[in-house]
């Protein structure tokens, strides 16, 4: 094969790849490769075309802006094309851009740049007539886009009406995006609802803006910044400033939001200073940027410089080091958090992301592993933004090797070897060895000593951390073996303070059963549930040995809480610590509080609204004394709902399920045996 045919073959391959990636990015809002990888391939094609112009295709992606509008939307023709920007990836490339400008314009005239953060969102055009928003469109292929008027009107910071001094007809161009914190909240909520999770804020913004139902868009946390003008009514042209920067200030005065980081500078050196300042500030911004856009500030010079096929000669985007890169997963480790959460962490072939070498990335949890479909050996896209731990955002399944291995979650904690617990319906798997696990040790002891638990006076968080770091306390039971002279050796801890602490710990050796249960830190067992468990079973031993069915008989203990309790007491490490604690701690125990009669045994009631002749608590106790169960929620198994004044959602749910609804008088009659 000749060199010419080899080059041509590579050019056709690149064209096909880039066309596919353009479709994924612009039409589907689901890119499979990071921008940096796309830029690399695009540059390669540009170079090959420059060196082999006779082989360049007239349909080359290098001549295109974005992609064609979607058929689902009405097409809008741009009166002035919405072109893309050329990129610069180094200071040398930017300097070459500036030199080309100087060669084309009168170098004796002073000129400046307007510097703007390059937002990572979706470019839109918004048209105002007589101050009213009448139309909005995507950039599309640069010449026509999609009509998204109804969706843009839902964006909270997009004005529907401009000030009275705005031009009669004004087209504004800008970027729609999501703030970083809003994006994280959006994805978190989507995961909880088992809905689509977006890879990054750009995808989320694009996907939200191109909804066919504007009510969906209205629920998405979108934001808009204007960055230029398009069409302006002829009679209003004269009021426009001859400076790009000043025109942005005019947009702001008319009521449009602009980025407050925009700055005008007077030299190439000042452009570099601005770039470095924004690069350093990047991680602290509330939104994502992937570079800086430089525009010749003079509108007259912009007009003089003109355009090439897909971009203006007077503007360029200088890219930041990529925060997303491709690499390969070589293995997976499992880390244990302070609450026992087991997090899979991918080991990676080291790759530079955003100027930092990354060798590990979080996979979050089993649900996320399943959603991504990721395996050991996969080529993946890694994303790093700010101080956030790098994460795997997508998998290139086309690059999967034959020997790829599935990711298997451990059945036992990698730190303490306790059983791993994952309750159905929960995304996170957790170590069940809460009292002994080194990863959870500090949090377990802080909870044990807290006010509503054992209430150890003077044992604050910092002191707990010191005791654990010294390896003097490995479980809550070790607190009772501390000696004052040992504690006194800690920094800023004299003998008197140490003795006070030891005495305070000793004072907790007599407590109550509810406090002791709560102090153990069993998942989902709060103060109220601990009280209910103590009241229902009477003794700690009965709580320990209770099965799933018995636990669910306790007020406000459902299946999930019951499973957490069983998992806790089943774990041998926890059993050992509890046994040691029982050697030190005592509490009064009694018989389980049962019903005075079994007249209403097997029946479940719900109380709602305001009762006038008794409190709801009094009514609850009276019903329980007759053997009934009083629940806080309505289900098909509910025997009846007793509704007082101003009953709300529980009444409505009862009616929808066909559950009998009765009055306060019916309740009193039932308690008094008159029914």
Write down how many β-strands occur, each being a DSSP E stretch of 2 or more residues. Answer: 22
Mean pLDDT: 86
Shape: elongated
Report the structural category. Answer: alpha+beta
Helix share, percent: 25-40%
Quickly count the domains.
5
CATH structural class of the largest domain = Alpha Beta
Largest sheet: 7 strands, antiparallel
Provide the β-strand percentage band: 15-25%
Uncertain parts: none
What is the number of helices?
24
In the CATH classification, which architecture of the largest domain applies? 2-Layer Sandwich
Distance between the termini: 98 Å
* CATH evolutionary superfamily of the largest domain: DNA ligase/mRNA capping enzyme
| Rg for CA atoms | 33 Å
Summarize this, please?
The protein is α+β, with helices and mostly antiparallel strands and 675 residues long.
Question: Could you characterize what this model shows?
Answer:
This protein has 675 residues and is an alpha+beta fold. It has five domains: 3-63, Helix hairpin bin (Helix Hairpins, Orthogonal Bundle), CATH 1.10.287.610; 75-319, D-amino Acid Aminotransferase, Chain A, domain 1, CATH 3.30.470; 324-399, OB fold (Dihydrolipoamide Acetyltransferase, E2P), CATH 2.40.50; 416-593, Orthogonal Bundle (DNA polymerase, domain 1), CATH 1.10.150; 604-671, 3-Layer(aba) Sandwich (Rossmann fold), CATH 3.40.50.10190. Helix 23 links the parallel strand 21 and strand 22 (661-662). Helix 12 packs across helix 13 (461-469). The radius of gyration is 33 Å and the shape is elongated.
